Amino acid sequence: MSSPPANRKRARPAPLSDRRRRATTDATGDCDESPLASLPEEMIRLIGLRVMAGDFLDYVRFRAACRSWRSSTDCPRGRGVADPRFHPRGWTMLPERHGLHPGRCRRRGYTRFFNLSSGVVVRACLPDLREHCILGIVDGIILLQRDEDTGIRLLHPFTGDIADLPPLSTLMLYEYWSHPGATLEASMLLPSAPPPTESSR
Description:
Layout: H1 16-32, H2 41-54, H3 56-63, H4 67-71, E1 91-93, E2 110-115, E3 121-125, E4 132-138, E5 141-146, E6 152-155, E7 162-165, H5 168-177
Antiparallel strand pairs: 1-2, 2-3, 4-5, 5-6, 6-7
Helix pairs in contact: 2-3
């Protein structure tokens, strides 16, 4: 039996992303052919709300089951921060490497999240947080402070949605001038502090 030519290239396996895409497409096609895909749209929406009340990621999986379920329910992307229904309650970020601050060290571009109710651990790909300080997590939404200008940002870890809030310096100024003992001399300690006026005092 003759051996294959030495210069013959071996076929490379398809990238993992392509294989996952095909697997998702196959699974979606199976659901589209089942009787569950023909459920009334209002019933699908009600079921989706019940699922979302339990866990946000379960709602994501529910929408991914088939096309009719996805088209009959609201997409969380683009509204994950603004709409409280899509807040991933019960999820918190795990610290990495000797208890370093969460997000400062990422595992191959991913950050791990822990579900306080079920104990499930998942990985999410977050934007680069090296220029931010994580102040905390509220209802699963990450509260960030930008290092360069103390700007406050809200990040949804699973949709990637970000909402920008005013910098902390503006809140400090408001708190200062609303204090009855505020003086012009003390205002020199606050950079870019507005001059005292009747309206601001």
